[in-house]
Amino acid sequence: MRDIEFAWSELGGGPALLPRVETVVREGALAARLPVRELARACVGACALAGAELGARRAGLAEVPRVRVDDGAVATAFVSERHLLVDGRTPTGFAPLSRFWRTADGWVRTHANYPHHRERLLRALGPAGACGDPAAVAAALAGRSALEVERTVSAAGGLAVALRTPGEWAAHEQAAELARRPLVERARADTPHARALPPLPDRGEGAPLLPAAGLRVLDLTRVIAGPVATRVLALLGADVLRVDAPHLPELPDQHADTGFGKRSAVLDLTAGRRTFEDLLASADVVVTGYRPGALDRFGLAPEALAERHPGLVVAQLSAWGAYGPWGGRRGFDSLVQAATGVAAIEGTAERPGALPAQALDHGTGYLLAAAVLRALTERAARGRGAVVRLALARTAAWLTAGARAGDVPAGDVRPGTADVPARGVRPGAGETGAPYDGPRAWLGETGSRIGRLRYALPPVSFDGGPGDWARPPGPWGTDPARWEAAPARREGTSARRAGRGRA
User: Fold this and answer.
1) Which terminal CB of the chain, N or C, has fewer other CB atoms within 10 Å?
2) What is the pTM of this model?
3) Beta-strand (E) ranges in 47-183?
């Protein structure tokens, strides 16, 4: 429970609520050298507790509902993109140029899933790699140092980072900047809000407790972490409208996985400025996931938003943090793993490794949702908005430093050299043990406008709360850019949810 304790404390939650959390520990789920299962459990548990807390306040309950965190549900949700099937089709994973490559002095990790990132990577490599053939790219990289590739590709707007050991990353200026900040950065806005947080709408008999019902969330995020956060808010009843630029389409399978419960619109923030300002004027929450500074020219810097819209909760997600020499740099989970020493710890002597899930993305996503929920609870109590910030690299610092003292060497570790003991965790207070026999119990099926979907069920669970999303995802960018007039009705039916959360 101490991982959940830490996460809850970082969110500003009071310790009196922690006994409301029960965990089901399943050995073998998210197995890794680093304590990935513990981190994942903590992020989801803190998020569920934040939802239960907000629900109790808005519904006027005498007691916060009990929270149940099951490692099986958490492990399934943390690889939700791998479990997704669309009409029986397995989603596309990493693109051919998104991988580790040998360099003259080590390894470099690139990310080129999006066409514009692929183009910038190839442009940075020059004629030698311009054709985009993996063999040609490998040859172009083999003759350069990893840091040279990192600098050249980043300068071109592409994505590449050199593999670092934990010790090498600790010596980096960006790591020092991260170490000076908390896991969850929270700042209350000075301006009192103009409208009260409304009580929950009346629930019919048997209807779930939806803590975020009636609240409007403007989702300006992409990829995994940010959309995971807003997917949680949609689960808890918020009207979540994702807005993308027309010229930056999301990858279809990625959108399908993270689009549950939401609507999706496209809007040019220049030509459609009046429409966007209308959305902002009645939003309760804005979540941004673009690199820090990228939206500032539209007046969307977090502090500027909070000042212009009293009572607004603004949540900013970034890869490296909104400060330091890498504050404005692009990044993804796989790149953060490579830069911060995670890939070195999880690798072998032959090559770098990876976590069993994109746990930095998913974990940070659940923490971001939790930070929003806690900020809404505090808004209801104190009448002010807030700005909250999280970074994938800061979550990575928690994962590596929180690997139980002595489990992972703090100094230089080359791939395969970390001598990490087996992590046989005995259930403690508020915990029960159970076997893990795969994800089947935590998968659902439903129809949708994009086809028949198999998907991971939500791991966020508390007494009386929702067990599934109110709507499946639709095609990207096909909804109108306006708020719903009334709560959404459920579309489709979950065909299989056998044994969810079983002990």
Assistant:
1) C
2) 0.91
3) 67-70, 85-86, 100-102, 107-110, 160-162
Q: How many residues does the chain have?
A: 503
Nearest one of 331, 396, 330 to 360, comparing CA atoms: 396
Q: Which two tokens stand for residue 412?
A: 């230089």
Is 407 one of the catalytic residues? no
**Do residues 208 and 467 make contact, with C-beta atoms less than 8 angstroms apart?**
yes
pLDDT in tens, 274-288: 999 999 999 999 999
| Cα-based angle 374, 378, 382 (whole degrees, multiple of 5) | 175
> Which amino acid, one-letter code, is at 349?
A
**94-135 confidence digits (pLDDT tens):** 888 999 999 999 999 999 888 888 889 888 888 877 778 899
- The Cα–Cα gap between 309 and 381 comes to 18
Neighbouring C-alpha atoms within 13 Å toward the C-beta of 203: 18
Task: Read off φ and ψ for residue 434, nearest 5 degrees.
Answer: -160, 155
70 closest CA partner among 394, 490, 374, 467: 467
For 461, the 3-state DSSP assignment is: coil
Helix (H) or strand (E) holding 135: helix 134-142
Is pLDDT of 167 > 80?
A: yes
Considering the candidates 219, 239, 333, 361, report the single residue annotated as catalytic.
Answer: 361
Burial class (CB in 10 A: 0-12, 13-18, 19+), 284: buried
Which two tokens mark 97? 């140029």
The count of other CB atoms within 10 Å of the CB of residue 206 is: 6
How many angstroms separate the first and last alpha carbons of the chain? 18
Question: Which range, of 52-56, 204-208, 390-394, averages the lowest pLDDT?
Answer: 204-208
Residues in a beta bridge with 4: none
Which segment, 136-145, 375-384, 388-397, 429-438, is predicted with the most confidence on average? 388-397
Q: What tokens appear for 373 in the block?
A: 């929920």
